[in-house]
Amino acid sequence: MRTLFEKIRDRHVVTARGDGNVLLYIDRQLIHEVTSPQAFEGLRLAGRSVRRPGAMLAVPDHNVPTTPDRTERIDDRESREQIEELRNNALGAGVALFDITDPRQGIVHIIGPESGLVQPGITIVCGDSHTGTLGAFGAIAFGVGTSEVEHVLATQTLWQGTPRRMRVTVNGALPFMVTPKDVILAVIAKIGASGGTGYAIEFAGETIRKMSMEGRMTVCNMTIEAGARFGLIAPDETTSAYLKGRPLAPPAEMWDAAVADWKTLPSDPDATWDREETLDASNLEPHVTWGTSPQDALPVGGVVPDPEAQPDPSERARMRRALEYMGLAPGTRMTDIVVDKVFIGSCTNSRIEDLRAAAAVASGRKVHANVTALVVPGSGLVKRQAEEEGLDRVFVAAGFQWRLPGCSMCLGMNPDKLKPGERCASTSNRNFEGRQGPGGRTHLMSPAMAAAAAVSGRIADVREVVR
Amino acid sequence: MIEKFVSLDTVGVPLDRGNVDTDAIIPARYLKTLKRTGLGVGLFFAWRYDAGGAELPDFPLNRPSFRGGKVLVAGENFGCGSSREHAVWALMDFGFRAVIAPSFSDIFHNNCLKNGMLPVTLPAAEVRSLIDALLAAPGGKIAVDLPAQTVRGPGGDIHAFRVDPFAKKCLLEGLDEIALTLTSAAEIDRYERERKKATPWLFLDLAG
User: Fold this and answer.
1) pTM of the model
2) Which pLDDT value is given to residue A99?
3) Residue B1 has what pLDDT?
4) Which of A55, A121, A432 sits opposite B21 (nearest CB)?
5) Cα Rg of chain A (Å, integer)
């Protein structure tokens, strides 16, 4: 009677300390340019080396510009140096690198699964909080700090305590134009930005089972926005079908053994949970955020809430500050909020399905005259597939900019950022103050909703736009 | 390679906000460094300075009576969001050695311990009373005693806190966790030999 998480954890215990902490073997580590330089420097200073270079994959994503001239020049000196440092560290240690000119380059959480290296039953870390994305494969995948990146480079292990167990069960068919992004926004709104702190969350139920791997990754991606480091989904036929034939997936001669192993992983029916939550997807509406925390999500038909109606004084103060930052008044209809920019991309929503969903809304329509809209595919392979399907032409014809892969406007570390006061409809994961650039204002939503905002010039109910 | 932490008796700095995320603690543009040092200049940048770069006088870190304080007292879910360890490096570079809050994000909490910064979790009502006391009489002292696992507020009030025994030992002695783990190298070797038989597909070289 063990959960999926417990089964994976048990098979990765190298040794135990006797105080509840175990030394957990880490099968794989993904590395990007922002949180790794100090880890490699630490190794050098201590005279240590990378224990298993073949268990690592490095890629530049946070700093990279998304314009075509990036392969010739990157104007920002510090960004250029971080990308060069990553290259030097990877080459020096013999770590695989998808460099900026590599057709497989892209956002770290997109290229990992795409290559086939993220598999059921593994432990995988990255110096990035959105590593939970990879739990969609039925893996223990979690974000770590730079000291832990260094610890994994040197030892291929991490000391870990035991998280509590939460199951979130989602049942019901997703209504028209309601997506995995809306499911996870609704879950975060329900349990709160710290509701999952200390937990590993397993997502279960018919709605999750029917989701593609892309949709499952969107759900697990934002688990950290509810405070949980781990989001997991049991592996099934959808998982193995996604992996089969990918370059770093188990090769043909090992495939059957791997699949047989994966079938043993799902939580036992009598597994116990410390907390259970449920969501009925059949009544779900497209969600958008109004504030500066991902928990500030509501159905698009709603209005900006009134802090004065909030009984808890600290929450009331937080809401007041959020509204002041966002430049919004209580009672404003969400669909009356005018946007300046639209960003379709990020590790949450830049996979092929996301681009198809946005293109379906953009097709035959025009980006509003007052809006600048970006579409940033999550990887070079997503970009190529989208171009083969003609999605790039749909976007360009509608007035969207079609960019090269990277983290782009999710986090204000590269040339794609908001100016102070600018308001953005964004498919990314965080609406924190200044996240998309100092003074920028973010409304989180699905790719279809973002495309609807782009053509409407304001937040819009995509169901009405396409009607 | 962590700094030791034993005890502090210092001005307490109240930050009366919940859900303080690591983007607020250190904005992304400061993450382009290759070093762990010098990040204090960017700490709480958007809250410390106006658009023209002038200090905002009401922000606690800018108020004369709170200057030099080494303990930050803040609201729930402190350090949520991005895993950037730069948030801890920025707080420490500015001079902070401990943060007291009703709850912390898991990753930030870990990052603190790896750097000799003490995250102290106290019940929300006790944190509230500390923040209220510091706001009512700015400059009040807070003492943090790790061996005794207590916080003493400005009014002499004592608050006990819990800490993982191993983390406590690492903090008190400034232990290098990697060196400690490498004493288990033989067990790691053995684990790898066994798993290579059970799940050989996980030992294929990703570099091909």
Assistant:
1) 0.98
2) 97
3) 53
4) A432
5) 21
